[in-house]
Amino acid sequence: MATAVAARPTTLQRLRRWEGLPYWLILPTVVYLAIFFAWPMIQAFELAFHQGSAWTFSPFRTMYHDINFGVAVRFTLIFIALIIPIQFVLALTMALVANSTIRFRSVFLFIFILPLGASDLATGLMWSSIFTQHGYLNTVLQDLGLMSHPYIWLNPNHQFLIIAEVVVAEIWRSTALITVILIAGMQSIPKEYGEAADVFGAGFFQRLRTVTVPMLKPAIRVALLLRIIFAFEVFGTVLAIGGSTTTTLAAQAYNWETALLNPHVAAAYASLILVLSLLAAAIVLRIFRTPREQLAR
User: Fold this and answer.
1) Can you name the residues that pair with 54 across neighbouring β-strands?
2) Cα-flanking dihedrals φ and ψ of residue 53, to 5°?
3) Quick one: 257 exposed, middle or buried, by C-beta within 10 A (0-12, 13-18, 19+)?
4) Mean per-residue pLDDT for 97-110?
5) CATH superfamily ID and name for 54-289
């Protein structure tokens, strides 16, 4: 009686069974992050804590006593507190529109995403021309009869107004980034969940709260992480709209490096930005944990 001979596994099958394959696949990413992120970060910390031939906290003391330190911290934190929730609501709304069945949704999405191609400096210059005393905003408001004389929108004495204008410019430029990530997340949600919610009579907002947003947690987490990190680095838009009277942590790091020629204090500012970004990332990861991550605790 003939006995069956087991077929020899192919090379592809052996690779799939090899336990070390995931580590080799992720190795290029690890090398890239080590060269372009980890190593520069280590060098920045070394510059911040090492001056001359000794380790010291002097750059951080200089940073703390900098006349613009408090202004930079306050502007950066207020800017992030304002722009993140507004952008998230707008991005979620546009993602719902793009994922719906309404007509011309692709056209709306195309127009909405266009500003993403503009740099922060170009965006700042464009919105600065809109907010100038004889810019488009005052011209339109005067033509509509809503004001009799031009209003000085770019008033350095009104810091909150400058912050609001920077927020408007950044919302126009970078909301599309969050939108694209949320659209990708929505398209990965199985349609059966929405159909089941419809069967049980769930309305639009109930479906959004109980189905869409919980299933979007991974995408929301990625979108908020990227946006918060980029918000801490905002520089060009603030420089174009607020000028030298307004500053952020990133602008101060640039100023100490180029104008004041002190890389140690600049590295201290960069280290502070890194620490604040990591704290914000930890908060986002904590809030938007998935049920699987909660069970793993």
Assistant:
1) 51
2) -115, 15
3) middle
4) 80
5) MetI-like (1.10.3720.10)
